[in-house]
Design goal:
This protein is 82% helix and 2% strand. It is an all-alpha fold.
Length: 435
């Protein structure tokens, strides 16, 4: 094994570069091109729903259920694999494994047809598992390779690289889709499928640069039953510890509730725009949706900065109450969205609060943690809480959309989660003032 020096800039830059490699999944597959492709697939076949597990189910509900199931798997296996990786020092192995699963699954989406719906949805789910699974081990590398004073800067660098890389590939894909005849495509779905191949190749290819520098902590220890379930034991211990800290407990309860709605809106935004907005034609739909996603990305950066400044003035929890109130307003506005310009306006509002609520939620949790050396376990608990919230949020969204036949009704229902989140945050603020 190569000699590893903590704080080495080459190692830190290699770590940050994995963001460049994997962020293309989040932007191209999760947020833009795949939702476009998925909607077009059903529209070309003139189908609003499909027989899914023996039940006639709307297309948007199908993808919601599959997404929820994927996150459920992640929330179950993450604690197990994290415990194993820490014990055996096999972070690099699991990082490579999930990267391979995710990138190859993205490539396999090239063969997604309605005729093989279950196979296509399986690879969609495996791509999701590969992405989120690799992040567990990618994030856990940070305290091992960087000193505390280096972590904020290198984490921000990774975020920046991921944003730049994913936007570059998205623009390439957008040109390929808009000018499909120039590239020799006769089928409008073909350039979208090629974009899935490019995502997988980009992700797998550029990740090799990170692997060359990232250290391997592998040891000669043997795995046993106790180690296998150590992750769950740690989560159980954290759950009991949190009960002793009323402010932290109150905040985490609020986060669990409002995070269900936040993550659900972010995941289904493109599917909503693809199906519910009255675009003039398919070309406008393709361009409009991708432009709106880019708009959200750009404004999210501004939103995160503004949120940070506001929290410095009035405090984290008060700021979160304001942001949750803004989310309620956005969901109500989304219920009435019909025209493209209305969708752009709502998308801009989503961008403004999206980056802020994510970054502020995590930093608030960090500030409320008790004095402990076991921060990894506390953040593992936070991540699992978030994933379970996504499972519940996406499932409820899919059920309501299926029962009522309108995605708008599902979004309007999410207002309830934000409202409950606000009530819990207000109670948490009172506990904070009394402590």
């Amino acid at each position: 094994m190569k000699t590893f020096i903590k704080g080495d800039k080459k190692v830190l830059n290699a770590w940050a570069f994995y963001d460049w490699a994997n962020s293309v999944y989040a932007l191209v597959i999760s947020s833009s091109i795949f939702p476009l492709f998925y909607g077009a697939l059903f529209r070309i076949e003139d189908k609003e729903s499909i027989n899914f597990l023996g039940i006639d189910t709307p297309s948007e509900s199908v993808i919601s259920y599959v997404t929820a199931f994927g996150f459920l798997i992640i929330s179950i296996i993450s604690p197990i694999l994290s415990g194993v990786a820490d014990y055996l020092g096999s972070k690099k192995f699991f990082l490579k494994l999930f990267c391979l699963i995710g990138s190859v699954s993205c490539m396999m989406l090239y063969f997604f047809y309605l005729e093989n719906l279950y196979t296509g949805l399986f690879f969609y789910m495996m791509a999701l598992i590969g992405f989120w699974g690799s992040l567990v081990f990618y994030n856990s590398y940070l305290p091992d390779i960087a000193f505390p004073e280096q972590q904020d800067a290198i984490s921000a660098k990774g975020y920046s690289l991921g944003y730049i890389g994913s936007v570059i590939l998205l623009i390439i894909n957008l040109i390929m889709i808009m000018k499909s005849e120039v590239f020799g495509f006769t089928d409008k779905l073909q350039p979208m499928k090629v974009s899935f191949l490019l995502v997988g190749i980009w992700w797998l290819g550029f990740s090799q640069i990170s692997y060359r520098r990232l250290p391997n902590f592998r040891n000669d220890k043997k795995i046993n039953k106790q180690v296998l379930f150590s992750g769950f034991k740690e989560l159980k211990q954290i759950f009991h510890q949190i009960k002793n800290y009323p402010v932290l407990k109150g905040y985490l309860s609020a986060f669990f509730v409002y995070s269900m709605a936040v993550q659900t809106v972010m995941i289904i935004a493109a599917y909503f725009g693809e199906k519910e907005v009255q675009w003039e034609n398919d070309d406008q739909r393709q361009t409009g949706l991708i432009v709106s996603i880019l708009l959200i990305q750009l404004i999210a950066v501004v939103g995160a900065i503004l949120t940070s400044k506001l929290s410095n003035k009035i405090g984290n929890i008060k700021t979160l109450i304001i942001i949750n109130s803004a989310w309620i307003f956005i969901c109500i506005c989304a219920y009435f969205v019909v025209k493209p310009v209305e969708f752009y306006i709502v998308a801009s509002m989503v961008g403004l609060v999206m980056g802020g609520i994510q970054s502020l939620s995590r930093s608030t949790y960090s500030k409320l943690l008790p004095e402990t050396k076991d921060t990894t376990s506390f953040f593992s608990f936070y991540d699992v809480t978030e994933k379970i919230g996504i499972v519940i949020g996406m499932s409820i969204y899919g059920i309501i959309a299926q029962m009522t036949g309108k995605m708008q009704n599902s979004i309007l229902f999410l207002v309830l989660f934000f409202a409950i989140g606000i009530v819990l945050l207000v109670k948490t603020k009172r506990k904070e003032q009394n402590s």
